[in-house]
Amino acid sequence: MPTAPKQRKIAIVGSRSVGKSSLTVRFVEHHFVESYYPTIENTFSRIIKHNGQDFATEIVDTAGQDEYSILNSKHFIGIHGYIIVYSVASRQSFDMVRVIRDKILNHLGADYVPLVVVGNKSDLKSEQRQVSLDEGRGLGEDFHCAFTELVPAWVTMLRKPSI
């Protein structure tokens, strides 16, 4: 008899226009969204199989954050982990990763939260890049979390849960 899927809820957060929705839609619905439409909040679901276990995964695609944004209580209730996205073409969005992580930790009153940092748009030309791969890796090391760079078009290759 198959075991029931475990429930997981992951929030995708980051600055505006870094590609959170494009990554999410590509991962869940397997198509790429090229147009930019500001997101208020969307929730997507997908079953992910990892080590023989099914996970009914709810992915909350949040509105873009800035240093003055207030994370809504929905961004904390029942969330099992976070993916913080920045654009490799935006130093400001990279700097916001630390601000967003600190807001999450402060709200939860925690020193650690399951987290993945994603540098998005890594297919851009080198002259457009404002954040190096080593800087992204260094941030992942500072946070003791996973780090990767992605291109939204590649996201369908992901099969395992990161959190």
TrEMBL record:
Catalyzed reactions: GTP + H2O = GDP + phosphate + H(+)
Keyword check for Transmembrane helix: no
Keywords attached to this entry: GTP-binding, Hydrolase, Lipoprotein, Magnesium, Membrane, Metal-binding, Methylation, Nucleotide-binding, Prenylation
Entry GO terms, CC: endomembrane system; membrane
GO biological process assignments: signal transduction
GO molecular function per UniProt: GTP binding; GTPase activity; metal ion binding
Compartments where located: Endomembrane system
Membrane-protein topology: Lipid-anchor
Signal peptide span: none
Pfam families: Ras
InterPro entries per UniProt: P-loop_NTPase, Small_GTP-bd, Small_GTPase, Small_GTPase_Ras-type
NCBIfam families for the chain: small_GTP
Family listed: Belongs to the small GTPase superfamily. Rheb family.
Protein's name in the database: GTP-binding protein rhb1
Source organism of the structure: Aspergillus bombycis
Lineage: Eukaryota, Fungi, Dikarya, Ascomycota, Pezizomycotina
